[in-house]
Design brief:
Elements (H helix, E strand, L loop, with lengths): L1 E3 L5 H7 L4 E2 L2 H6 L4 H10 L7 E5 L4 E7 L6 E8 L9 H14 L4 E6 L4 H8 L3 E11 L13 E2 L5 H11 L2 H4 L10 E6 L2 E11 L2 E8 L7 H11 L10 E6 L5 H7 L3 E12 L2 E10 L11 E11 L1
Parallel strand pairs: 5-6, 11-12
Antiparallel strand pairs: 1-3, 2-5, 3-4, 4-5, 6-13, 7-12, 7-13, 8-9, 9-10, 10-11, 14-15
Length: 312
């Protein structure tokens, strides 16, 4: 019943796209998700677009999409249509097949972002997903205040990689670190105090908006208002080009909520960030047999090394 997308499914995907749900907030808000375009790209150019799986039977049709770069450990459930309902027999099988596809491509974790009050949340729990983080999304749609920022922040460079990684390690809970890699330092802004990097603002630019993931050390709380103001000013002008700015605040930085509200951002709502583990890292001794000796042989294994393997 479930198979990869091909040219016969163009009209189906086009028709059902309006009834679906996007499970990746940055794609939904900043990247202007286009399910049919993503499906066609993946079909015509493997490695591009979003791998798409289609369900068809005599009574129902549905499709699901995955975002994953081959070889990366993190994969995302991107889009499923129609949205969840008890009558939709395809939903849970599609989620399972998306997980299998992600695992076959080398993914270790499949992530989906949903409202905890939604039917999709309960369905994902039934499919083996668990909450590993919660987040609130804020939006700045209006103009950035003209007042000059009180602090100077600068664009991050590759030389900041170690400092950004250290900030990430000290700030982000271990459970989240096991799923999500550290941010890339070359696409955001940093703030240093007394020679130490205490804030990193990760920025992803899409055709429909700018997505911001802030990493601010609690010790810099007294300057949080000024840092947010300075970051918004850096995102103004030609970089923003009239697009809204979305700021994603994880629960472990909950103190930033008041700062963003004071800065004039609008709260769009909260989500559960859920993960399904596709592989388990197991470290085992590598057993190595002793070579045969003259006149006798041995079958006794000895531990010669340790090897890390992955068990699905």
């Amino acid at each position: 019943m479930i198979r990869p997308f091909d040219w016969r499914d163009v009209s189906l995907v086009k028709q059902l796209s309006e009834q679906g749900i996007c499970l990746d907030s940055i794609t939904r808000l900043a990247r202007d998700n286009q399910p049919l375009t993503n499906a066609l790209l993946a079909y015509l150019m493997p490695g591009a677009g979003a791998p798409t799986l289609v369900w068809r039977d005599d009574r129902q049709a549905a499709f699901g999409q995955l975002r994953h770069r081959p070889g990366e450990e993190l994969a995302r459930a991107l889009f499923i249509a129609p949205a969840w309902s008890e009558q939709n027999e395809a939903w849970l099988p599609l989620v399972d097949r998306l997980a299998a596809e992600a695992g076959a491509r080398g993914g270790h974790n499949l992530v989906a972002e949903v409202d905890e009050a939604s039917g999709e949340f309960d369905a994902l729990r039934r499919a083996g997903f668990a909450i590993y983080a919660r987040q609130t999304i804020w939006r700045l749609a209006g103009e950035i205040p003209a007042t000059a920022p009180a602090l100077a922040i600068r664009a991050a460079t590759p030389a900041d990689s170690l400092a950004v990684s250290t900030l990430y390690t000290n700030l982000v809970p271990r459970l989240v670190q096991q799923v999500e890699p550290p941010p890339h330092p070359g696409r955001g802004y940093v703030f240093e105090r007394d020679g130490e990097l205490v804030a990193f603002v990760d920025v992803k630019r899409g055709p429909a908006g700018l997505w911001v993931d802030p990493y601010l050390h609690p010790e810099a709380y007294d300057q949080a208002d000024d840092m947010v103001s300075a970051a918004l000013h850096m995102l103004g002008g030609h970089q923003r080009a009239g697009r809204p700015v979305y700021v994603c605040v994880r629960r472990y930085q909950d103190w930033l909520q008041d700062v963003l509200q004071t800065a004039g951002l609008e709260c769009l709502g909260s989500q559960a960030v859920m993960v399904k583990r596709l592989a388990v890292r197991v470290t085992e001794p590598l057993l190595k047999a002793l070579p045969a000796m003259e006149g006798s042989a041995t079958t006794t294994p000895v531990a010669g090394a340790r090897i890390t393997i992955y068990k699905n």
